[in-house]
Amino acid sequence: MTPPPTAPTASAPPVLALDRVTRSYGTLTAVDEVSLRLPAGARHAVIGPNGAGKTTLLNLIAGTDRTDQGTIALDGADITRTPTAKRSRLGIARSFQQPLAIAELSVLDNVVLAGWPHHPQRRGAWRRPSRYRLHKESAGRHLETVGLADLAHRPASTLSHGQRRMLDLAAALSGNPRLLLLDEPAAGLTDADIGRLLGVIGALPSSVAVVLVEHHVEVVAELATSVTVLTAGKVLVEGPTQEVLAHPEVREAYHGTGPSASPDGAPDQGIPTVCPSPTDARG
After folding, report:
1. DSSP state of 138
2. H or E, element range at 179
3. Can you give the pTM of this predicted structure?
4. Is the pLDDT of residue 262 over 50?
5. pLDDT-wise least confident of 8-12, 18-22, 232-236
6. Cα–Cα dist 87/117, whole Å
7. What is the torsional sign of CA 92, 201, 235, 189?
8. Backbone phi, then psi, for 270, in 5-degree steps?
9. Whole-number mean pLDDT of the chain?
């Protein structure tokens, strides 16, 4: 089960605060004045139809895309214009819809390399023996966490889709993040792989806040204590998970119980309980 969020003190700022964040591409507003406040240890899901702006929102938080308006704060500090690499060192980590790995490197070396920028002695060649040893033990622990320790010395190119997703998660955890952004981590996984994923995320320390973009209702219900629903870049509903999933407009979007439209004006078929990762860049 997901550990309960750490109760913030009266003076503690939220680990993540978005204030009317907006991002447009030409005439399309992908994220439209979205605000969000998450305490340390939050387990929060962002759901909505394809093209609703979910992945764009993660990109804005991670810094791989820039806001047109609004502000983003991490632990009370404004990071709206902070570069991606520095945000990562400040404690923001993420996974991607398509797992990222360097195929010719071993599974272990992928995690070592991902964690390298977060180490105080990161300057110099990452494969220099004395420095490589500093990271190898930590990387091994992360592989143990995601169930890949036995595959540590295999080339990443030999992994299955589910194993690559676990490797992507291990790489994200290698920086000991304060805020973990997960973009459809269950997409394309078998039931067994989803069970493993739930176990790994559910066992994360309560100090780590998680923002989860996911189409699998069961995964959202299991992991998230609160949910934001986006449609056409705007917040439709936000609140406790069970209340949001029971909301009539959300049920309509998920189960197609009534007509709706996607942001580009085409009919929206709703979000099935299980579906592959969408290819729409707007998320």
Report:
1. H
2. strand 179-183
3. 0.82
4. no
5. 8-12
6. 11
7. positive
8. 85, 170
9. 84
Residue 57's nearest CA partner among 103, 91, 98, 16 is: 16
Confidence of residue 76 (pLDDT cuts 50, 70, 90): very high
Crossing angle (nearest 10°) for helices 129-146 and 191-202: 110
| Angle at 221 (CA atoms; ends 217, 224), nearest 5 degrees | 120
Please identify which residue in the block is written with the tokens 């739930």. Answer: 198
Cα dihedral 181/234/77/7 (nearest 10): -70
Q: Is the pLDDT of residue 272 over 60?
A: no
Tell me how crowded residue 186 is: count the other CB atoms within 10 A of its CB: 23
Return the bridge partners of 139, or none: none
Instruction: Give the position of tokens 């091994």.
Output: 140
Tell me: the pLDDT tens digits for 146-166? 999 999 999 999 999 999 999
Q: Which two tokens stand for residue 148?
A: 């890949």
Strand partners, 211: 44, 181
Cα torsion 153, 164, 171, 85 to 10°: value is 130
The gap between the terminal CA atoms of the chain, to the nearest Å, is: 28
Q: What is the pLDDT of residues 110-135, one digit of tens each?
A: 999 888 877 655 555 555 666 677 78
Long-range Cβ pairs for the range 109-115 (8 Å, 24+): 110/156, 110/167, 110/171, 111/139, 111/142, 111/143, 111/167, 111/170, 111/171, 111/174, 112/136, 112/139, 112/174, 114/170, 114/171, 114/172, 114/174, 114/175, 115/139, 115/142, 115/171, 115/174, 115/175
